[in-house]
Amino acid sequence: MLASIWLRAAQRGAPTFLMTALLTGLSPMALAESPVQRQELIAALRQLDALERTVTHSAAHTTIAPGERYHFDYSRLLADLAHVRAGIQSHLTPSRAQPRDPSELAGDYRTERPGAPQPPEAQP
């Protein structure tokens, strides 16, 4: 019974109606970049500059203590910040329609120092 209803609706142009309803429901501002959004993205780039300076300073002044197993991976964070910056800049100054870069942020900033003693494994 339900299948016959869907079949009749498809034959009567229901998909066309739904697509028209969806497209007319979008406002033009949803498709275009507003000047406020552009200013906010430019402000985000300035904040990224400040954050990169802070991270670079911290990386230069942080020493890894002997015997310390884990430390913060500043280089990975800086690479992710550069990736975010490139994404914002490409949005602000698009050259032409191109596919997005599918690479993801690393996200894991805790690394194990090479040569650190391994914890003993529990034996059953």
What is the chains' assembly state?
single chain
Major pleated sheet: 2 strands, antiparallel
Helix percentage: 55-70%
Residue ranges: pLDDT <50 for 5 or more in a row?
Answer: 14-31
Succession of helices and strands:
HHHHEHE
Tell me, briefly, the overall form: elongated
Output mean pLDDT.
75
Strand residues, percent: under 5%
Report the total helices. 5
Q: Please state how the strands of the largest beta sheet are arranged side by side.
A: 1-2
Radius of gyration: 26 Å
How does the helix and strand content classify structurally?
mainly alpha
Q: Could you give the count of β-strands?
A: 2
Our measurement of the CA-to-CA distance between the termini, rounded to an integer number of angstroms, reads 60 Å
Pfam family, one: Plasmid_RAQPRD
Protein name: RAQPRD family plasmid
Region (Disordered): 90-124
Organism: Alcaligenes aquatilis
